[in-house]
Write a structure and sequence with these properties.
With 341 residues, the chain is α+β, with helices and mostly antiparallel strands. It has two domains: 165 residues, Immunoglobulin-like (Sandwich), CATH 2.60.40.10; 89 residues, no CATH class. 34% of the residues lie in helices and 28% in strands. Helix 2 packs antiparallel against helix 3 and helix 6 runs antiparallel to helix 7. The N and C termini lie far apart (63 Å).
Length: 341
Amino acid sequence: MVLSSLASRLSPLASQFAAPYRAARSRIDRWRLQTRGAETGSIVLVQRRIFILPSRYGMIYIGALFLMLTGAVNYSLSLGFVLTFLLAALGVNSILHTFRNLAHLKIVPGRVQPVFAGDHAHFMLAIDNPGALDRFSIAITPGGGVTVYTDVPARQSVSTSVAIQAPRRGILMPGRLTIWTNYPLGLCRAWAYAEPEVRCVVYPRPEAAHIPLPLPAAHAGLGIAHGSGQEDFAGLRSYHPGDSPRQIAWKAAARGQGLLTKQFSGRIDTEMWLDWQDTPDALGVEGRLSRLARWVIDAQIAGISFGLRLPGVTVPPEPGKAQHDRCLEALAFYQSGAQPG
């Protein structure tokens, strides 16, 4: 009874101090782990972002110095003191050089090409060294990824690629990267965290089996008069990425009218719809997206003008690589909550 009464009295007091404690703990974690979230633009590794501690070999080095100092004190060895303090000064200098090897580097994220689910996305990073000293053995480690190493000459920029596996379709971000070095002696490890705001579009993995494409349908109405046939000239339209160079009106471009594409008539062209309804329900959502991804790739290779129909999403028919990318992106973002950007 006494303990129960004491607990009931202390409970309001504990709840009163719980919120300030959680806020203080959150601030300490942000400082300790540098949890700033994704950062836009270039990231400069200023002094307050860099941590430095002895490495495993550094701890062994400190232990050896302590034993040497103990022996020199016990046996009054003058040369022992000289050697111990000389090695200790070497260790202190290595702290400065290790820190300076990382300080003031600038990390600039680059473009990343879309990948299929299950592949590795290669995030390009440019490391700029504004200083007059070369930087050696700069390492970048993504969370759960493979460490990459590079050297950055003085007043130059070096590009490096960080590979991160893309487990599922949608948007993949690199997350927090650890940029570190233990140059020159390996006695200290200096590191900083960076989380660039760059994203990679991950397409659904295409179905392995080559399922025959749906039957194409003939154009109707205006589609007959303004197809992509090669018989009678029907006019010009704005250039779309992926249009054949042979259909571009180069004379109009030379007159400063911009890129225009010739349209022809006189032949009933065909267009193909890649429809969600043409895939079996038994495949499930991801299986149906994988089959549509396979059809998109095969239709683009075949040079067919194709469109895509998903529940709530329609991509009008167009030929070319740009249409291929638009359709795969629509498949990547289907029911994912992400928006194309």
